[in-house]
Design brief:
This protein is α/β, with parallel strands linked by helices and about 350 residues long. The chain has twelve helices and 14 strands. The strands form three sheets. Strands 8-9-7-6-12-13-14 form a seven-stranded parallel sheet, with helices on both faces. Strands 2-1-3-4-5 form a five-stranded parallel sheet, sandwiched between helices. Strands 10-11 form a two-stranded antiparallel sheet.
Length: about 350
């Protein structure tokens, strides 16, 4: 593999030095520029044309968000956010992902000297993004672009649906922004796993709630599923759907990781497979790895319909590819078609 050329932007000189050492120790990443503010980051990206930018948010002169917007407009490239685990940091990171950043990682709680504790994950993500990502497609198709109205007659069945369940990871923030705000207020209950830490799922739910007709919130243990509500699994916890008496409620707890994730798409999908059959709709969106495949296979065998995001519109065509290869996906659609497909499928009586 060719050496990955990266630029780091952070206002801490110590962090820039330690992060440079950590990345270059891998032997596959070369730090070609280290900016102390957003203005320098933009200048370095234009002059050095790196493969990836590792960007902090809180910087002087020009902050990370302003730098990101300028870079996306003038010299787009994969941008990776290196964020702090705070409510404010989470909100800013969600905005960064909305503006075009491709992924993020949390700075270690112990400070700069503990960067090596996240080194392997950081290097793995950087390599995967540079080599495998579909960044160019995402850059050409911003989530704010109005979708063309697709024709689904004959391609997708219409049937009664009582629950919609979604799984996503890398790129899922952008995908969700392209789907949830376009769904009507009376959409059937949505339960959703997006791989994120706790503060980030809360901030993401708040952002979506602000711009959507549906009510979007972080799920709570024991909460009843209701029409018009989209519930996102809290980061660090597993979320399931359980039937209690004549209604369905969330069961949320701190279980072991499944497929390396907590929350896990598999855990949610498998619980839906236990409670629903033909009256469930599964959606698998962009993400690294294969989380969700096993659960979707079970849902599909029980008669559920499954939509997968297609390769061209994925940031990372990993989870949808895995589910499709396992035979669990009925149709693959561009992310801009999915909201319309959900409305079409649930808009009439059964027409198979």
């Amino acid at each position: 593999m060719n050496i990955i050329r990266s630029v780091i932007a952070d206002d801490s000189a110590l962090l820039r030095d330690v992060l440079t050492e950590v990345l270059e120790k891998s032997g596959s990443i070369k730090v070609v520029g280290a900016a102390k503010n957003g203005k320098e980051a933009v200048e370095f990206v234009k002059a050095l044309k790196p493969d990836i930018l590792i960007l902090d948010c809180d910087m002087p002169v020009m902050d990370g968000l302003e730098a990101l917007k300028k870079i996306m407009a003038e010299c787009p490239l994969p941008v990776f956010m290196f964020s702090s685990l705070t409510r404010e940091g989470a909100t800013i990171t969600i905005k960064a992902l909305e503006y075009g950043a491709i992924d993020f990682l949390l700075k270690p709680a112990g400070g700069v000297r503990q960067l090596e504790t996240v080194a392997n994950e950081l290097i793995r993500k950087i390599k995967f993004i540079v080599v495998k990502s579909r960044f160019a497609t995402v850059a050409r198709q911003p989530v704010s672009a109005p979708p063309e109205k697709p024709e689904f007659s004959g391609r997708i069945p219409q049937r009664p649906i009582d629950i919609i369940t979604i799984g996503s990871s890398t790129g899922g923030v952008q995908a969700g922004l392209a789907i949830i705000p376009k769904l009507p207020r009376n959409t059937k209950p949505i339960v959703w796993v997006q791989h994120m830490p706790a503060n980030f799922t809360y901030s993401y739910a708040e952002r979506l709630n602000h711009i959507s007709q549906m009510e979007v919130a972080e799920g709570r243990d024991g909460e009843a599923l209701k029409e018009g509500r989209c519930l996102i699994a809290p980061g660090g916890l597993q979320m399931r759907v359980r039937r209690k008496a004549n209604e369905y409620r969330l069961s949320i707890g701190k279980d072991e990781k499944d497929s390396g994730h907590n929350p896990s798409c598999n855990v949610l999908f498998e619980s839906v497979a236990e409670c629903f059959s033909r009256n469930a709709l599964g959606i698998i969106l962009t993400g690294m790895g294969s989380d969700g495949t096993e659960g979707l296979v079970k849902m599909h065998r029980n008669g559920s319909y499954v939509i997968g995001q297609n390769e061209d519109s994925c940031v990372v065509y990993g989870m949808p590819r895995s589910a499709y290869a396992a035979g669990a996906v009925d149709i693959q659609l561009d992310v801009k078609e999915i909201a319309a497909a959900v409305q079409y499928m649930t808009s009439g009586k059964e027409k198979v």
